[in-house]
């Protein structure tokens, strides 16, 4: 259930409705009278392919106690934007419109995304209302700082629809990884020759980010060590940005000791220059025409040697003998799962949204998945991790 109230940020609610619908979520929209002054109900009906409700006294709706039915229908309720006025009404338990009535009648989790003038947000009354609602179990995301529609600067902007969509899906996804700490690495590393040149690879980090996003939705505490990428940090995930393989290893070791699961999806550079020139190397500098390389740390091998009882998942980006090379890596590093893909395939290589992988287990089984979106590959991998956790817990 998407509740839209009367604020300029109502236009962002349309994007949220669209995102959730694209992700397979059924979205019913409830709009206040003021919200309809900012954006037409027809917009939400077109985006969700479901009717929009707003009039608490609509005869055909209330003939079946419509507000109660709507409240029972929802698996989660998100109010975006949540204005100061609606927050005040909800905190006071008022039910003077369809949305506030549903907020009283629903037993589904409620998520509110405040959006208002920064001075209104900072007012003690608003703070008290938010605290009161939070004390009743209502969840909040935002607001974000920045320039608001009224021209003032400060916290008051509604959170981004992508973050809200992730938060909503976290509410409705079964939490089979609740209480599990998951450590994930993703993205490339950069090994600098000088301040402007480096050795790296085309990895975007998307595969690991999808793993982090879905592990969080399934209830895990997720730490993501992320190499250089243009992609944003996933919502609800502890993200540590790094550049080099050495920095990645240091970040991993800080968080690996109490992790139950480590998934090493990063495309770590295997070599680095022995020295990084302090200034840009110029053409004609014959002393710099030869670059000597040394190996970077093998993070996964180090985890295999130093952790006990942890579930280790590795990735292998191969160009030939995919299965044989992957099985050798799985055995050498004593992994619980290894995910291998052929990076010469344009549809499953670097910097694309799809992947075609083989999931290999220590008993020699190889499961070949078809070409899938990376988010679905992430789900398939996490399904197997969840089953390993369940088996281990039954044994203990």
What does this structure look like?
With 396 residues, the protein is of the alpha/beta class. It has two domains: 2-172, Rossmann fold, CATH 3.40.50; 181-395, 3-Layer(aba) Sandwich (Rossmann fold), CATH 3.40.50.10300. The protein has 15 helices and 20 strands. The chain has helices spanning 10-22, 35-38, 41-48, 59-62, 66-73, 84-92, 98-105, 118-122, 124-135, 161-172, 206-217, 245-256, 299-306, 322-332, 374-395; strands at 2-4, 29-31, 52-53, 77-82, 110-114, 139-140, 181-186, 191-194, 197-199, 221-226, 238-241, 261-264, 271-273, 293-295, 311-318, 337-342, 354-355, 357-360, 366-368, 372-373. The strands form five sheets. The protein has an eight-stranded mixed sheet, sandwiched between helices. Strands 3-2-1-4-5-6 form a six-stranded parallel sheet, with helices on both faces. The chain is globular and about 75 Å long. The chain starts with a strand and ends with a helix. The mean pLDDT is 90.
In short:
This protein is α/β, with parallel strands linked by helices and 396 residues long. The strands form five sheets. An eight-stranded mixed β-sheet has the order 11-10-7-12-15-16-18-19, with helices on both faces. A six-stranded parallel β-sheet has the order 3-2-1-4-5-6, with helices on both faces. A two-stranded antiparallel ribbon has the order 8-9.
């Amino acid at each position: 259930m998407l509740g839209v109230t009367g604020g300029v940020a109502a236009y962002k609610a349309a994007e949220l409705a669209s995102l959730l619908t694209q992700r397979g979520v059924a979205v019913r929209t409830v709009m206040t009278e003021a919200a309809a002054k900012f954006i037409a109900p027809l917009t939400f009906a077109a985006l969700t392919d479901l009717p929009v409700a707003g009039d608490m006294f609509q005869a055909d709706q209330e003939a079946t106690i419509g507000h109660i039915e709507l409240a029972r229908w929802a698996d989660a309720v998100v109010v975006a934007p949540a204005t100061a006025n609606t927050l005040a009404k909800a905190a006071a338990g008022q039910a003077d419109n369809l949305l506030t009535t549903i907020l009283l009648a629903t037993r589904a989790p409620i998520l509110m995304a405040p959006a208002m003038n920064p001075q209104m947000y900072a007012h003690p009354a608003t703070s008290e209302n938010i605290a009161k609602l939070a004390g009743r179990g209502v969840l909040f995301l935002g607001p974000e700082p920045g320039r608001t529609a009224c021209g003032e600067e400060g916290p008051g902007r509604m959170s981004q629809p992508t973050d809200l969509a992730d938060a909503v899906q976290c509410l409705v996804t079964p939490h089979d990884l609740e209480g599990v700490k998951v450590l994930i690495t993703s993205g490339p590393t950069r090994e600098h020759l000088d301040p402007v040149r480096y050795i790296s690879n085309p990895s975007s980090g998307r595969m690991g980010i999808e793993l982090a996003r879905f592990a969080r939705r399934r209830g895990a505490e997720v730490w993501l060590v992320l190499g250089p990428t243009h992609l944003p940090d996933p919502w609800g995930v502890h993200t540590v940005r790094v550049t080099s393989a050495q920095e990645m290893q240091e970040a991993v070791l800080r968080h690996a000791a109490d992790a139950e699961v480590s998934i090493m999806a990063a495309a770590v550079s295997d070599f680095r220059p022995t020295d990084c020139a302090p200034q840009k190397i110029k053409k004609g500098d014959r002393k710099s025409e030869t670059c000597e390389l040394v190996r970077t740390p093998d993070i996964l091998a180090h985890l295999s040697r130093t952790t006990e009882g942890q579930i280790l998942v590795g990735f292998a980006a191969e160009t030939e003998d995919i299965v044989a090379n992957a099985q050798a890596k799985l055995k050498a590093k004593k992994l619980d799962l290894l995910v291998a893909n052929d990076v010469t395939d344009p549809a499953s290589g670097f910097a694309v949204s799809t992947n075609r992988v083989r999931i290999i287990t220590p008993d020699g089984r190889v499961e070949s998945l078809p070409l899938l979106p990376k988010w679905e590959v992430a789900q398939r991998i996490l399904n197997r991790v969840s089953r390993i956790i369940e088996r281990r817990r039954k044994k203990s």
